[in-house]
Amino acid sequence: MLKGKAGNPMIDIDRDTAFSQRMLDALSTRTKASINNIANQNVPGFKRMVVRFEDELKEAMAKGKDETTVTPVVERDSSGPPEQNNVVLMEELALLGKTSLLHDVMTRRVGSYFQTLNKAILGR
């Protein structure tokens, strides 16, 4: 984080906005994967798709990498017997609910940044 006058923290708008965009992209990808999983819940042998983002983010931060470059990784969950569908409807719906809440938080965060910029530029 950048420091302003008297050591007060300043918001790094470019970095925060880039991270927020990555997070929103990951949430969008997770929503699409869950919807696809729900659509295929009755297809024999279908294996659900999972999106890893938070683990990738933690790993990048632990290695000192720039977290704004982290992208979501989409993988097939191969758990269970090969001929068995592994989609659990209630788990997918819960994941969609969680994803929706996180999306709301992130869009409010981005909106707040731009509202602050607008106020600084226009004075209102």
In words, what does this structure look like?
The structure is a single chain. The chain has 124 residues and is mostly helical. It is 56% helix and 10% strand. The protein has 3 helices and 4 strands. The strands form 2 sheets. Strands 1-2 form a two-stranded antiparallel ribbon. Strands 3-4 form a two-stranded antiparallel sheet. It is elongated, with a radius of gyration of 19 Å. The two termini are 26 Å apart. The N terminus is likely disordered.
Keywords for this entry:
single chain, 124 residues, mainly alpha, 3 helices, disordered N terminus
Largest sheet: 2 strands, antiparallel
Strand order of the largest sheet: 1-2
Helix content: 55-70%
What is the overall shape?
elongated
Order of helices and strands: EEHEHEH
- Low-confidence segments, given as residue ranges, are 1-8
Q: What is the arithmetic mean of pLDDT?
A: 87
Through-space gap between termini: 26 Å
Number of beta strands: 4
Question: Structural class, from secondary structure content?
Answer: mainly alpha
Q: SSE layout and pairings?
A:
Layout: E1 2-3, E2 9-10, H1 13-39, E3 49-52, H2 54-62, E4 73-76, H3 89-122
Antiparallel strand pairs: 1-2, 3-4
Helix pairs in contact: 1-3
Please sum up the structure shown.
The protein is mainly alpha-helical.
